[in-house]
Structures are given as structure tokens and as C-alpha cells.
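Step 1: inspect the first sequence and its C-alpha cells.
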Amino acid sequence: MNKRIPAVFLMTVSALLFAGCGMFAGHELTDQGMEANKQLDYQTAITRFDEAIEAGEDGLAAGRGKGIAYLGLADYENAVASFETALSEAGGRLTDLSFDTDYYLAYAYYKSGRMEDAVTLLNGIIAARPEEKNAFFLRGRLELTQGNYELATVDFDNVLALDPSDYDCILSIYKSLDEYGYTDEGAGYLKEALDRDSETMSEYDRGRFAYYLEDYETAKNCLERARDSADAQPALFLGRTYEALGDYNYASTVYMDYIEKYGDSGEIYNQLGVCRLRMQDYENALLAFQVGMEAEKEPCLQTLKFNEIVAYENLGDFKRAASLMEEYRKHYPDDAKAEREWKFLKTR
């Protein structure tokens, strides 16, 4: 397909339904497969899931895990087949795990170029669970990839009708619209929430909305008041706000203060490294990414690994960057940006 990959689609599936990705009581081989998936060892995972199925472990859980492994390998046809087989094992039972598998199957359909099948599956989820706002959101995302702005906004409006104060979701809607060229329309969702909830919205939420609206002075003031928290997000947005204002030194201080007060955070180290790249402090940027990888397993390990490669490039160590990129591509074969970077590195 030539359409852009809807990264938010899979992120939403993984983040909002991650409870379905845990261990399965009494299913030793399935558990081993899930652990291999977490370690990005997809071939081992597939072997374990096949063994689990052969041993008579739960076919839905094992097949679902196998499909996730094939997604990791960017083998979408086998991912579709695995998810479909897994769902057939459910025997029509509408459980949280079967719905979770439906979401993954919808993503695999999309990646296989089967857009209509993906939308049909999301339609089915909505019919069975009309308050499933994730399905409305993801269907809206898919409509955007097809240029169907009006249909997308109908779905986004349905999401907000179900939960008008889900600020994370409102921001996801904004980012989706912004990605496809509807920045002003997306900003309208942010402004509407700010106006409606002006007296109840937290300083953090107000600050991050202002950040995306490029009202950096308001963002700075709100986030300064919200930063004294073990939650890394206020510090991240505050630092990014200072970066947007061109004050990279103070942004670095924000990130370091958080680490000193609350301990290591992969997200904070990643943003610190990005900030240092912008300051052309490549040695310390590299150090930040590497320390961040030691602290972070999920969800930003992939970003840290990619940025480590960028840091080596900026240091002129193209041999090391190429070696790391070769390994990166094995774990993340569907990263188009990495493919472009790989072509560049091969010319150095």
C-alpha cells in the first residue's frame, strides 16, 4: 500500500488493550511465546505458539500471540491467518481476549491492503459493543487514510459523545487530523475542550493542550505548576515547551531535575537526548539514549534505539551506525524511516 501507516492504530491497540497481552494461567508454552514477543524474538515466539497449539493449550491465546509475532516480522498475510484461526478457536465467544484479537486482526487487514475487511471488523465490534470508543477512533483513523474526512469526524464525534473529557483521546484525534493536513480542524477539538472544561481541567491538561496549540507561554506557566509529580508527562511537555521557545539549556535542566527527583525514565532520557542533539552535543545525546535503553523496555525502546543510531551518525561513526541499523531492521522491519536511513548509511 502507498498510504501512510496509521501508527496510532497499533499504538492504541497495544496501549489500551495491553491487559490482554499478559501471561495465561496454566499455559506454559503460550507464556514462553508471549515473553519471546516482548523480547522481539519473533521466530522463537512462533515456534513456542505452534508447540502450544500442538500441546492443546488455549487456541485463541496461542493463535493471537502467533499473529502478534507475525506483525512484528511485518508478515501480514500470516498475521491475518493466525488471528483468523485464533478467533475460530473462540467458538463465537465474545470475551475481552477475542475482542482484543479483533483489533489486532483489523490492523493486520489494513497492513495487508484489505481496508474494507478492517472497517467491517470494526463495524462488528461497534455493533457488539456500542460503547467501545476505541473502535470508533480506529475506524476514524482508517477513514482518514482513505481521504474520508467527513466520515472520520463522525467517528471522532462519536468517541467524544461517549466520553467528552477523555483528554488523551482528544489529543489523539488532534494528532490524527494534523497528520493528514487538517490541523485547524484538529485544533478545534482542543479549543472546544478548553472552553468547555475551563474550570475543571488540570494544569497539566491545560498545559499540554496549549503546547499543541503553540501557545507556549500558557503552556509554560501551566506545566511549571504541574511539574512536581512522579508522572513523567508534565516534565516532558514542559521541557518540549522550552525547546519550542529555543531555550534548550533550561529544557535540559527540566529533564535532569526529573531524573534526580524521581529516578530513571526512558521517555525522559529520550527527550533529553533529542534536546542535546539539537544543541549539537552529540556525545551527551548518545549517552542519554544509551542510559535510557537500560531503563526502558517499553514503550519507547524502539525510539531510543533509532535515536542512538542518529547520534552515532552525527558523531561521524557511520560504521557503528550501520551495524546498529542492520540489527534494528531485524527487530523493526516495517519502519519506513529506518529504511531511508539505511539507504543513506550504505552510501557512507
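Step 2: inspect the second sequence and its C-alpha cells, then contrast the two.
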Amino acid sequence: MLFKRFTKILLGIVCVLTLAVSLSAMPVFAQTSDDLYLGGFPAGFVLNTQNVEVIGMCDIMTENGACCPARDGGVKSGDIIKSINGIQITSANQLTETMKEDFAVYHFSILRAGEAVDLTLKPIIDGQTGKRKLGLLVKDTINGIGTVTYIDKANNKFGSLGHPVAVENGNIVEINGGCLYGCSIYDVKRGLRGNPGELKGFFDNTCMLGTVKTNTKCGIFGDLSSEFDVSTLTKVKKGSVSEATMGKAYIYSTLDGNKSEKYEISIVKVDANNKDNRNYVIKISDKRVLDKSGGIVQGMSGSPIVQNGKLIGAVTHVFINDPTRGYGISIDNMASSY
């Protein structure tokens, strides 16, 4: 998977990184237009998950010294907090609000490595703030860098990544929306045999490109900001995997800054019916990519694949033992998933 993920951690009772985008009333989406604008530019994704995960614990200073009720009570990093005193917990903000309740003890229902665990924690008084605390550090978001594949201006939508954001066991992360931000690439870690490289970039939190609606097996999709400008993007027709042939093609991707470049590749295999959405095997042939990144690296997922002037798919995976080669998904599969 070529979505580069990272976590922001704040010190305190909880790490609250919620960006509320309600999915309670899902609209009916229009069919993807045949006239699209090429992406190829990087974006910063902030996805709101439906789980609150413990990422650490911290000591609380009291009049009797430092201690951590969460640690002493048996909480471990990686635990998923499902409920507290019977109150279902689905966000860090909800956890904060529940902690304000005047409970003598907190009965935690936790999911640990797939097993249910019940713990009882007793809060202590922070000597500096006078507030009741447990010393928990949690997250309810996944942040990362990927590439936007296409802009569907007619329907004010975007498609990106070409693969899902998933946990280690392969399960797709369930989300409650999220945000898409501008991003600039400042460095590239070269890909080597057995060691995938990665794009290194930073978010521009002042530039929100859109809101994320769904995380699917074919990518991340959502709505464009009303201020999104397509005047500098290339307009293309949507192609089909049935039109794809082995031979020369191009990808649009960004290895520096935030402006995409056109790079030559070869399509070495076409598999329209692949059940894992690995519809293309591609090989990077452009010397500029090979010199700078060694081939396909993390963060390039979503880079559009163009052949004969039509958008036919997107880059999704790299071959671990050969970074010059990778897989791509067809635009047919991407467009039909949102």
C-alpha cells in the first residue's frame, strides 16, 4: 500500500484530532463524468476513524507524587476503547466529555488484539489543574500523504489513492469522514530492493481541498471545496481497461513541491478481471523518476495512468523486490466505487 501514514500526538489526557464530517445522511452520488481533470498532485489526508485507540500514557503530578491510573489499571498501548460505564466511545472528543462525568470509578470495555477486556480505573486529581485525570493518550484519526487521481468538476468530486486505507490485518478502516488538504513534497527517500521508499511532505492546513466521504477498496473519495481551481489542470477523457494495451503510457505524479509532472512508463500486463484490483502491471522507464526515487515509492498511490490521451487508471502498489515495477487499478473500478 502506497499511502504514507503518520500520527500527530499531543501531550495531555487525550489527543483530540477530530474533524467532524457527518455521514448520517448519505447523499445519492452522481455517476462519474467522462470528462475529468488529471490529478497527480499530493494531498494530505486526515481521516476520522470510528475507533479511539490508546497510543500512550503519561504521569499525572499529584500532591503525593507522580502516578498514572491508566497504566496502573492495566491499559496498554494499542487498546481500543469501546465504552466507558456503558457509554459507547467513538471519538476522542466523546472520551473527553465522558471523563467530565462525576464517576467515582470508570469501567472501561476495551478491545485488545481482538479480545474483549474489562478494566476499572480510578481517576486522580491533577495537582496543577485540579481536574480528574487518568493519564491516557489516544487518537481517533489517521493522517497521511497520497496522490489525487482525478477531479470530477461536473459533479464536484475527487478520487484518490486507488486502494483503501487499511489496518495491518488488511481490514478497511471505517471512517466518519475527514478532510483533504494541500500538501508539498520536500524530500524523497529512494526505494531499494526490499525497502520501499517514500515521499516526505508537509500539510498546508490553511488550504482545504475538500472533504473525505468514503474509504473504499478502490480508494478515498469525497467532495471538492467550492474554491477549488481546476484552471491549471489537464482535462482528459475517462478511458477503460478494455482500451488499454501493453506498451508506452504515462503517469502524472509529484516528486517535488506540489505540481505534478508527466513521466513515461510501460504497461507490461493488463488484467481486466483481477479480483484484487491489480488491473495493470507497470514499469517505470523515465530516467527522472529512477534517478530521484528509484521508482515507485509510498505516497505515489493514486498517481493517474494515462494512455493514448485517456485516463485509464492509477498507481497503487510497488513490487517490494523491484521498485521500478508496480500495480495499477483501472479507472473503471475506481469510478464505479463512488
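Step 3: confirm your contrast with the notes below.
The chain has four helices and 23 strands. Helices lie at 69-72, 92-99, 287-292, 331-336.
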